Amino acid sequence: MPPTDRLRDHAGQGAATTVAAHRTRRRLRADRARQLADLLRRQLLTGAFTDGTLPHESTLAADYRASRNTVRQALDLLRAEGLVERLPGVGTVVVAQKYPHGLDHLMGLAETLREHGHVTNEVRTMGPAPAPAPVADRLRIPAGADVLCIERLRRLNGLPLSLDLTYVPLDIGTALLGADLENTDVFRLLEAITGQRLGHAEITLEAVNADAHSAAVLQAPRGAAVLMLERLTHLADGRPVDLEFIRFRGDRITMSGRLHRAVQLPAAH
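and the corresponding structure tokens:
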């Protein structure tokens, strides 16, 4: 290979190495920014910044042994989530609050969030309808049997929080038609109607993209991620009585619970 070609080839390899190194540094900074954002998010949501203002960027950089660029990138992530905002002459301030929704106990939304304000319910639709096959199967009723369908927009202190679609077997649901659903949790009404306590529920929690209808009702950006909670609630005697599909605004709610490790002992011989 002529010397000029060798020089050109070496220069090309050097440029490629420089680009790769730059990409690696950028990826590592993005990783560290995400990790720092996770730590700061937890603190601001639990009230660690009592005056509502985050420490200065230089303080955060020193506390977390991060570069100023990493800190700025972490704050940008939190700003994109709508949790903080940058105010000239003030700094980075907390501008949003998420409310804790525990998963340890079977409670209605008003019961769960009673310490954080007043929950109101806007009943958007309510009436009997034939149960779709999956609903009938989950509620253990004959295929095609009528159920009471209820769609409610639920607000906390006036802010849209969740859109709930509820299916109740009609022999119980008929009594809900004249009930005060705007100010009372369905759980309390079910216990009053049946004369039984609720026993347990099976839940599934996942993130889904908000469809146009859900986004409009929840006043959330179309396509924004929402927390979907599917919950099948049973009476104390084991009968399933309430199948719900609940879409929570992910920027206004956090799910938490306490888990205990179940240690599986070796089988006895």
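(Above: one complete record from the training split.) Strands lie at 84-87, 91-94, 99-102, 119-130, 146-156, 159-169, 198-209, 225-235, 240-249, 253-256.
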